[in-house]
Amino acid sequence: MPAKILIVTGDAAESLEVMYPYQRLREEGYDVDIAAPSRKTLRFVVHDFEPGYDTYTEKPGYTWPADLSFAEVDPGGYVALVIPGGRAPEYLRNDPELRKILKAFFDADKPVAQICHGPLLTAAIDTLRGRRVTAYPALEPDMQAAGASFQDTETVTDGTLVSARAWPDHPSWMREFIKVLRTKAPVN
User: Which range is the signal sequence, renumbered to this chain (predicted)?
Assistant: First the structure.
């Protein structure tokens, strides 16, 4: 049976930041489940960078069914975790079931990939203190407040934690995450 990877997300997640790792990790041979606050059809968004805007714009994105709810997740059944960005992390960080899942992955030192606003989740459970990370650049103060050393670069790997700024950094992000996976959680 192939090793399993969990993606945790919710409505208003960035479409590309969910779908790219979902497809890329399946291509590597992993089974991938998407968990959300409840089993439902999730509504993702597209964040884009357009001339004349001070920040990204947001448009409706893909819809995709959640495989299971956070309450149904057994972290022990997964070898790694992916945390997409978008607006979803802003409200997901308050979910007690998700906080338990995140803590279990970090306590077991399993590989974790986070991108964009995803580090808001790992900051909320106090797992970034003393670590090097990147995130969407506007989150630099949040990362510093969480005790992390923020680096404005495509991808930062700190042990089993691999972080990236946003979807334009996908190739570097997944390349580095797969290196960690091949060492710590190879496909069975």
Answer: none
Is this structure's pTM higher than 0.90? yes
Residues with catalytic function: 117
Residue type, 123: A
Average pLDDT on 90-116 reads 98
The residues near 182 (Cβ < 8 Å, ≥ 6 apart) are: none
- Residue 19 pLDDT exceeds 80: yes
Which is nearest to 110 in space by CA: 118, 97, 101?
101
- pLDDT at res. 188: 77
Residue 126: HSE in the Cβ half-sphere, 13 Å Cα cutoff: 0
Count of CB atoms situated within 10 Å of the CB of 59: 9
Distances 158 to 23, 127, 137, 149 between C-alpha atoms, Å: 24, 12, 18, 11
Contact between 58 and 45 (Cβ < 8 Å): yes
pLDDT, averaged across the chain: 97
Q: How far is CA 126 from CA 33, 58, 93, 150, in A?
A: 25, 29, 11, 15
The domains located in the chain, with CATH, are 4-185 (3.40.50.880)
